[in-house]
Amino acid sequence: MSGFDKVVGSYAEALEGLADNMTIIAGGFGLCGIPEGCIAQIKAMGTKGLTVVSNNCGVDGFGLGILLEDKQIKKMISSYVGENALFEQQLLAGELEVELTPQGTLAEKMRAGGAGIPAFYTATGYGTPVGEGKEVREFDGRPYILEQAIKGDFAIVKGWKADRYGNVIYRHTAQNFNPMAATAGKITVVEVEEIVAPGELQPSQVHTPGIYVDRLIQGSFEKRIEQRTVRPA
Predict the structure, then answer these.
(1) Domain 11-218 belongs in CATH node 3.40.1080.10
(2) Are the C-beta atoms of residues 64 and 177 closer than 8 Å to each other?
């Protein structure tokens, strides 16, 4: 692999260097746009004591939820956690630390971490438990709380297409948290459905430039539907 060619041949190579007690930032929203192969590799590695930053923790038996089965996650920083019974059990038993974060604030924490901004002020959460113990300043007569940015040892991201240089595009709502997560990891691993030839992606199409991507792998995806709803017959 040259300095410009980001493609790796296996998930073991993609996650090389991941160790206990690291922080992982994961893209995805529900089960949409989640890095399924990277999550499966972390499960296989048995890495423990992890802090995972993601909108949610998957569901029982799929997505990030599989990392709860062997108690690999020590702390979860997320926005929505209502679809996982095992998550609830571990939280209530004191086996899992959870830091609930408003969804927009979580996105901005990732974006700020990737942009080199250590902290930012937001009105969201002021006057609620989210704002307890945080610095407050007033701007234009409105109080704001100081939120710290988030950076990870690894970022795991799901894209649609990429070239070998790591320029990535996402498909529709599967974009979600992935672009922010991709910027915020010391090592960013992107798995995609298709790797195309250099020059095939138009610059205006690219959502994540290759400068942010360290390792790229082509995977296969189940793309499970979280809540299947159909109209009455």
Answers:
(1) yes
(2) no
Encoded tokens for 176: 């979600």
Q: What is the pTM of this model?
A: 0.93
pLDDT digits (tens, 9 = 90+) for 30-42: 999 999 999 999 9
Q: Which helix (H) or strand (E) holds 216?
A: strand 215-218
What strands, in cross-sheet order, belong to the sheet with 142-148?
119-122, 142-148, 136-139
* Structural domain boundaries in the chain: 11-218
Radius of gyration of the chain, Cα coordinates, nearest whole angstrom = 18
Task: Classify residue 59 by its DSSP letter.
Answer: B
Distance CA 50, CA 47 (A): 7
Q: What span, in angstroms and rounded, lies between the C-alpha atoms of 118 and 58? A: 28
CA-to-CA separations, 178 to 15, 46, 49, 77, 132, in angstroms, rounded? 17, 24, 23, 16, 29
DSSP codes of every residue in 135-166: -EEEETTEEEEEEE---EEEEEEEEEEEETT-
